[in-house]
Structure formats: C-alpha cells, structure tokens
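User: I've been trying to design a sequence by hand for this structure and keep getting stuck. Would you show me what you'd pick, starting by listing the structure so we're on the same page?

Assistant: Good idea, let's start from the same input. This is the structure you sent:
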C-alpha cells in the first residue's frame, strides 16, 4: 500500500504526513501498539515545535536547521542524550518513509549529528539471587503463589520479553517436544526448548488454573480468570525480586539479561543465544559478552591468590 498520493493530495501537511506514517507502521510494519504511540507522540511534539517556533506546517519546508534547533531545545529542557537519540531515530524513520513515498527528495537528517551516549552494560540478577525463585517457601501455597513462581521461572529459563509472556496461550507449549512457541516482535515466531522439570510445573499449573477459574486459552491469568497484562507481570517481578535481589534495577527485562548473561558464563555459543532471544542482529546479543567479561574479571579479582594478596595489602 502506497501513501504518497494521499499526502500529495492533502498538501503534505505535517499532521497528515504523521497520520499516514502511523498507519504505515501500524498496518505494514505491524509495530506494537506501545511503539506506535511513542512514535506518534515524538512526531506530534516535533510538529508542534515547528508551528510554534517557525510557523512551519509543510513537510517540504523542513530543513536540518529546524531539526537541530529542536534537538537543542530538548537538551536545554534537561533531556538525556539517550532520550534525544531515540527521538532522532523516530525522525529519521519518518523522513525515510516520506522519501520512499516520493514526498521528499533530500535526506535532511544527514546534517544532524546524533548525541553520543555512554554505554551502559545490561543489569542482571546474580545466580544466588535467582536461586530464591526456586525455593517454594518464598511463595504462598495458593493458585496465585504457584502462578507467580512459575512466571518468574519462565522469565529466567526462557529469556522471553514481558509482552511475549502476556501473549502466551496454553497451546504455546508443546509438551511432546518440551518446547515453547513464542510470538516476538513483528509477529516473528521462535521456538525455545524447556526442561522436563519446567514442563511438569506448567502442567501442574494448568491443572490448578482449571480448578481455580476453569479452562482458559490465556496462559497466565488473574485469580478472577482475566488474562494477564504487562502491568501484572511487572508488578509480580517487583514484588518478589525487590526482596531477593540488590540489582540496581528490578524489572521483567532484567530476567532476559540474566538469561543471556548466565548462559554465556556457562560457555553457551553466542549465535545460539541470539536465536533464543529472537534478535535479528548479532550485535544486539554481543553486549552480553561485555557483561560476561566483566563478571569474569570480578571472579578473578576476588579468587586469584595474587589478587587476593594485593587486596589484603590495600586494606
């Protein structure tokens, strides 16, 4: 589906161009609802800035100078480099779409520098912290307690994203092959193997769930039978991992980081981890090699006899 004829007919006003772009990323690229809302918010903010500061409402009238000024205003308002960088990515994608549709000839973003951001290594839970989720005494012996424990285990043992957890159904599990079928970003499907113990725990949970709320297609549900939301997943992770871990950040995604980091620490092949995580680019997975390397340095520092001797002298 092409949008250029619509844009030209409507005079290529910013609001109309944004509407067409939002429709494109929703229907053709099939980005998540949350991502679409974020893209739309960034572009609406940029359009408002153009009207207020330059009285510009025409796509073809925008140059790199207006973009730079917008970038500067974001910085002056206290925006972090990482946040500004993300907003510029949205703008680049938007203008690329307009060029593809023949609505723009030049790439004005070529003259817009991306702010440098410090590289932060992913936060992860340590293995001794994760071990608490396998202690049954840390969870109530109720439907909710067993469900919460299974949720934490699945996040850690499969590395799936929060949105992917919410999208799971009972049919996502193949008990014959002990595999979990996950629908990832852009509806890309991947298969994740699960251990016999986890497979058995899932069967027990399904049985308990049927007793509690009856048969449901949704995998994780509340006590009233309603399907889980992403908020439910985040709330449960916060509730337990705040008690179990001293990590700088507590969230479902930290389990994903932990999954990848611990696999690397145990010698897993990075290409295999890439497939398990559902990354399209190996570069996205390679960040965990830095985490693993740092972890090894810490182990060396605290266990090698020579290093321990130096630490004693310094103290």
């Amino acid at each position: 589906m092409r949008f250029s004829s619509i844009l030209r007919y409507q005079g290529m006003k910013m609001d109309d161009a944004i509407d067409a772009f939002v429709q494109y990323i929703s229907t053709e690229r099939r980005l998540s609802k949350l991502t679409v809302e974020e893209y739309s918010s960034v572009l609406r903010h940029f359009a408002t800035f153009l009207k207020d500061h330059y009285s510009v409402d025409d796509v073809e009238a925008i140059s790199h100078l207006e973009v730079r000024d917008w970038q500067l205003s974001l910085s002056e308002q206290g925006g972090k480099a990482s946040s500004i960088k993300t907003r510029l990515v949205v703008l680049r994608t938007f203008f690329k779409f307009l060029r593809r549709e023949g609505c723009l000839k030049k790439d004005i973003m070529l003259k817009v520098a991306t702010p440098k951001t410090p590289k932060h290594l992913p936060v992860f839970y340590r293995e001794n912290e994760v071990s608490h989720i396998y202690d049954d005494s840390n969870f109530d012996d109720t439907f909710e307690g067993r469900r919460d424990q299974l949720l934490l285990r699945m996040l850690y043992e499969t590395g799936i994203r929060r949105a992917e957890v919410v999208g799971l159904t009972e049919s996502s599990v193949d008990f014959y092959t002990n595999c979990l079928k996950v629908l990832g970003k852009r509806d890309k499907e991947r298969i994740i193997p699960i251990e016999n113990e986890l497979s058995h725990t899932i069967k027990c949970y399904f049985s308990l769930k049927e007793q509690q709320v009856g048969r449901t297609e949704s995998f994780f549900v509340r006590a009233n039978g309603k399907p889980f939301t992403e908020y439910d997943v985040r709330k449960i992770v916060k509730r337990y991992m705040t008690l179990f871990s001293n990590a700088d950040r507590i969230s479902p995604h930290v389990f994903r980081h932990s999954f990848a980091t611990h696999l690397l620490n145990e010698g897993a092949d990075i290409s295999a981890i890439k497939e398990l995580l559902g990354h399209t680019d190996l570069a996205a997975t390679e960040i965990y090699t830095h985490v693993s390397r740092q972890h090894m340095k810490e182990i060396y520092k605290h266990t090698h006899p020579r290093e321990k001797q130096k630490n004693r002298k310094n103290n």
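That's my pick for every position. To get oriented when you compare it with your attempt: Strands lie at 173-174, 179-183, 189-193. The mean pLDDT is 88.
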